């Protein structure tokens, strides 16, 4: 074979090799694995990001050297999401103080029927009249016998209120000679012996004093009505002499028994006496009686005023 013939065959072989090389290079480029995009998340990861790819790479021309595969550019656009509204915290409020419990109505507001408070509510209340013209004899001189049993009121009360009594002989059992008093004013036990200098240890008290009655309605009574008032057993009680003297003619606003356990009975008796005889009370007196009853014995029954 001539030299030209060998040269021509060599060129053909070289061309084929180049074609194969180029084909292989393109195949390598095509077979390169794709580059995974890098996701950039927004603050709200609940929505998928939107990925925008750049233009795909163009294969190199056959006569150019094999290019290095360019890095794919990637622009990740974050999804635009409506921002989650933030609720501002409600302004703190100072809690209101607990409501005060209702004040209970006084037990005197609606007094029960037949009670001392109901009886008290029916008594007239006004100011004290002048003491002008008062005299003990206007209520009768000495003790009378209102129940006509042959004994005067003083001895009737001694027999009623004392225990272990004895009577003076020849008096048909009327004149009390000795006895024992459980004094309601002080709570002490007192021995009674009739006689000069000893009888005054036990006295008969007018629970509503005669002078007090005079200033609160007795001035309008007849002489007979005042006599009945002064000897009414409802208004009389055997008590310690010195303590009775300290009371004087005071009403419930100015004097109450030292024995607190007797105060309910004491003001209940005073209320019954004034209701029975139509006497009035001053506002201070009424309030004092109401306070004792309401705080110590609000349901206490009124004493009978008949007779």
UniProtKB/TrEMBL annotation:
Residues 1-23 form the signal peptide. Residues 59-68 have a biased composition (Pro residues). This is HNH endonuclease family protein. It comes from Arthrobacter halodurans. Residues 73-91 have a biased composition (Polar residues). Residues 153-290 form the GmrSD restriction endonucleases C-terminal domain. Keywords: Endonuclease, Hydrolase, Nuclease, Signal. GO terms for molecular function: endonuclease activity. It holds the Pfam family GmrSD_C. Residues 55-111 are annotated as: Disordered. InterPro entries: GmrSD_C (IPR011089).
């Amino acid at each position: 074979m001539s030299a030209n013939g060998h040269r021509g065959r060599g060129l053909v072989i070289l061309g084929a090799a180049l074609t194969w090389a180029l084909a292989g290079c393109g195949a390598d480029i095509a077979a390169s694995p794709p580059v995974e995009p890098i996701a950039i998340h927004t603050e709200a990861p609940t929505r998928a990001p939107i990925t925008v790819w750049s233009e795909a790479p163009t294969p190199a021309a056959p006569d150019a050297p094999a290019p290095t595969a360019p890095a794919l550019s990637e622009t990740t656009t974050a999804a635009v999401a409506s921002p989650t509204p933030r609720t501002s915290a409600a302004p703190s409020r100072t809690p209101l103080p607990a409501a005060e419990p209702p004040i209970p109505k006084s037990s005197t507001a609606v007094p029960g029927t037949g009670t001392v408070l109901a009886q008290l509510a029916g008594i007239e209340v006004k100011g004290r009249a002048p003491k002008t013209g008062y005299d003990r004899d206007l209520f009768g001189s000495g003790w009378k016998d209102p129940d006509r049993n042959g004994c005067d009121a003083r001895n009737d009360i001694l027999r009623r209120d004392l225990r272990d009594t004895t009577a003076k002989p020849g008096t048909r059992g009327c004149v009390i000679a000795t006895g024992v008093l459980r004094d309601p004013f002080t709570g002490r036990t007192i021995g009674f012996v009739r006689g000069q200098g000893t009888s005054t240890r036990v006295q008969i008290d007018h629970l509503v004093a005669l002078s007090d009655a005079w200033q609160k309605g007795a001035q309008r009574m007849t002489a007979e009505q005042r006599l009945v008032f002064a000897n009414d057993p409802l208004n009389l009680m055997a008590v310690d002499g010195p303590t009775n003297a300290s009371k004087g003619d005071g009403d419930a606003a100015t004097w109450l028994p030292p024995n607190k356990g007797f105060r309910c009975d004491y003001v209940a008796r005073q209320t019954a006496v004034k209701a029975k005889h139509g006497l009035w009370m001053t506002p201070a007196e009424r309030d004092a009686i109401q306070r004792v009853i309401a705080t110590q014995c609000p349901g206490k029954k009124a004493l009978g005023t008949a007779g």
